[in-house]
Amino acid sequence: MYLRALQGYEKAWGPDHTSTLDTVNNLGILYKNQGKLQEAEDMYLRALQGYEKVWGPDHRSTLSTVNNLGLLYADQGKLQEAEDMYLRALQGKEKAWGPDHTSTLSTVNNLGNLYADQGKLQEAEGMYLRALQGYEKAWGPDHTSTLDTVNNLGLLYADQGKLQEAEDMYLRALQGYEKAWGPDHMSTLDMVNNLGLLYADQGKLQEAEDMYLRALQGKEKAWEPDHTSTLDTVNNLGLLYADPE
After folding, report:
1. Contact present, 149 and 131 (Cβ < 8 Å)
2. Where are the TPR repeats (predicted)?
3. What crossing angle do the helices spanning 18-33 and 60-75 adopt, rounded to 10°?
4. Global pTM?
């Protein structure tokens, strides 16, 4: 459908019309979701070049495509290119919408994820805390975007060895996910599994087993026993039972 629309728009309005460029950008999103990362990059770069020409570097559509390129580069492992895109998007969004706009905060959170992947844990923590404060102000403490950032902080604290802080974040996220999504939602079950991993690291083996068993029961119900996420929890239980001390 997008290809048909693109062909029609190019014929009717030319390659640089905003409707043409919007369809090019949508194709980039589709290709990314299909795992066709090179094709996605080609579409995003074409859309970006067109938006910059038509709207300028700080227009919402331009900045959205810059952010999309950052996400794509992160998926490709091009971490420096991803950082460059995120920082450009962040600067533009802060100028256009202010530091506390939810679109700005989304890019802040993306930077946190990138810094965590790069092992820049202090920088990641700063981004996550800024995003969390902004989301709490914009949407409240129980919004799913707020909770996702709480979970990100928990993962970061666990990586830093701050196990009590990680536990506090995980428990807050779990309580929020249960309220927002219910006890058997994927996000809830992933949080339960994360708590199991944390408790195992803390030597709280009974609590770890309880979390793993709860996660396993939920995943078997939601995804079947042979789903990879289910098998990950089975493996976690196996490791726990193999090393009970």
Report:
1. yes
2. 21-54, 63-96, 147-180, 189-222
3. 20
4. 0.86
Which tokens hold the place of 20? 């043409």
Residue 79 covered by a domain: yes
Domain containing 38 — which CATH number? 1.25.40.10
pLDDT score of 71 more than 90 = yes
Query: Looking at residue 93, what DSSP letter applies?
Result: H
Q: How many domains does the chain have?
A: 1
C-alpha 215/C-alpha 236 separation (Å) is 11
- Per the CB < 8 A criterion, the answer to whether 102 and 139 are in contact is yes
Residues in the chain: 245
Residue 123 inside a domain? The answer is no
Averaged pLDDT of the chain: 92
DSSP string, 161-209: T-HHHHHHHHHHHHHHHHHHH-TTSHHHHHHHHHHHHHHHHHT-HHHHH
Burial label, 1 (beta-carbon count in 10 A; 0-12, 13-18, 19+) = exposed
For the chain, the first-to-last Cα distance in angstroms comes to: 58
Tokens representing 128 are: 């996550």
| Rounded Cα gap, residues 119 and 158, in angstroms | 13
pLDDT confidence of 243, banded at 50, 70, 90?
A: confident
- Percentage of the chain beyond pLDDT 90 is 84
The answer as to whether 62 is a domain residue is: yes
In the DSSP assignment, the letter for residue 15 is T
Structural domain boundaries, residue 6: 1-96
